[in-house]
Amino acid sequence: MIRLINFRGLTVILSLCMALCIHASNENRLFNPEGTVNISNLELKVGAEQMDKLLPMLRNKRVALVVNHTSLVGKKGTHLLDSLLTCGITVKKVFAPEHGFRGNADAGEIVKDGKDSKTGIPIISLYGNNKKPTAQQMADVDIVLFDIQDVGARFYTYISTMHYVMEACAETGKKLIIADRPNPCDYIDGPVMKSSLRSFVGMDLIPLLHGCTVGELARMINGEGWLEGKKKCLLTVIKIKNWKHKQPYSLPMKPSPNLFNDLSVSLYASLCPFEATNISVGRGTYFPFQVLGAPDKKYGEFTFTPKSLPGFDKNPMHKDELCYGVDLRKISNPRGFTLRYLLNFYKKSGQGADFFIRPRWFDQLMGDTSVRKSIIQGKTEAEIKADWKPGLVKYKKMRAKYLLYTE
Fold first, then answer.
1. Where are the domains of the chain?
2. Greater pLDDT, 36 or 63
3. Is there a contact between 127 and 68 (Cβ–Cβ < 8 Å)?
4. 3.50.50.60, 3.30.1370.10, 3.40.50.12170, 3.20.20.70: CATH of 47-238
5. Farthest-apart Cα atoms in the chain, separation
6. Across the strands, what pairs with 72?
7. Which of 71, 275, 349, 402 could be a cystine partner for 80, CB 3.0 to 4.6 Å?
8. Among candidates 26, 38, 30, which has minimal Cα distance to 262?
């Protein structure tokens, strides 16, 4: 006897089956906070997937790649290096950013030179003593190809590496190709960086959330004369197909060891400044940048204990200590940048200015000393954000000149 299933029940069953199938075929994919795959990912083509445009520019040239574990192409997720070698492209070397070529080095850990175990191609670190390719390293190269997934925050150092690579290309007369990828946190928010706070976590005068793809940002760096000596590099951007600003994008891989999923990417800009305080962002757990806490019950009822996790964080803050705080894994999809978590923990700490145990680092992350001072003065988030507005208005006008994807 066949039983009828009501429509609502059938919908639930089908939804569960689809979710299981998606999970089985996308074990390494990231999902948005609602747990659904963004359909736009299936339609767009990142720059590195457009071989019809890339290969004619690279054939019979000596190529250097600036790539990492995010430089994947096609449905099978083949690494760009392997794809180019298969197509007969001469790849002389790979320049590796923070976290290394395979993306498994801890945040801040020095990345060493070496060779790719699969291909034997030399790997040159751009995260350590040498953050900028030298003239000697560029001598046997005709073209540099940059393909790394950014997350839209000024202090995410892949774009700092791009800045230095642009300078090296400008100084040696070598062409730079940017294979563009979408910005998964595509907002404009936070203070515009002050030049006095320039560092590797803030190379250019852009807001904390800059609202650009790396290709657009490279155009801006070139156009605004931000390279050393106001030089310009020979720049070509391979545009993304079927993507525009404000269109959601679910990353197909972890962009760095401690950004596990779309929620952590969305929260990253708002939580990273905590790393200049005594509050843990969950490094040493399997949910970093999704929780906050410290070894004091005043910070909340949720608990977690950071552990040494090689490949993620070997020596996290408050290692092996029970931390009390908040669990952000159930919040609705955050949009842009917020100070509410920082203000909340600052008040709970009762420490005043001492809450910022590394004040200079906090200022460099924020790009502006006024944020820390305003928090100490007791200003609200609305009052602090009002101070940013004139700079953001000016930035948006300037940014419009370099956009490649209409909003």
1. 47-238, 262-376
2. 63
3. no
4. 3.40.50.12170
5. 82
6. 79
7. 71
8. 30
Model pLDDT, residue 112: 64
Q: Tens digit of pLDDT for each residue in 320-334?
A: 999 999 999 999 878
Sheet harboring 323-327: ordered strands across? 291-294, 323-327, 302-304
Map tokens 């997934």 to a residue.
149
What value does the mean pLDDT take over residues 339-343? 97
Angle between helices 369-376 and 359-366 (to 10 degrees): 120
Is this structure's pTM higher than 0.90?
Answer: no
**Token pair 């250097």 is at which residue?**
64
Q: What is the rounded distance in angstroms from the CA atom of residue 307 to the CA atom of residue 233?
A: 44
Token representation of residue 13: 């069953």
Q: Which residue has the tokens 């339609």?
A: 43
Nearest of 21, 22, 29 to residue 252 by alpha carbon = 29
Question: In the structure encoding, which two tokens stand for residue 48, read together?
Answer: 């590195």
pLDDT of residue 26: 34
Give the count of alpha carbons within 13 A of 137, CB side only: 22
- Residue 156 contacts by C-beta under 8 Å, 6 or more apart in sequence? 150, 255, 256, 268
CA-nearest of 263, 152, 158 to 209 is 152
Residue-wise pLDDT tens digits, 21-53: 333 333 333 434 333 334 455 689 999 999 999
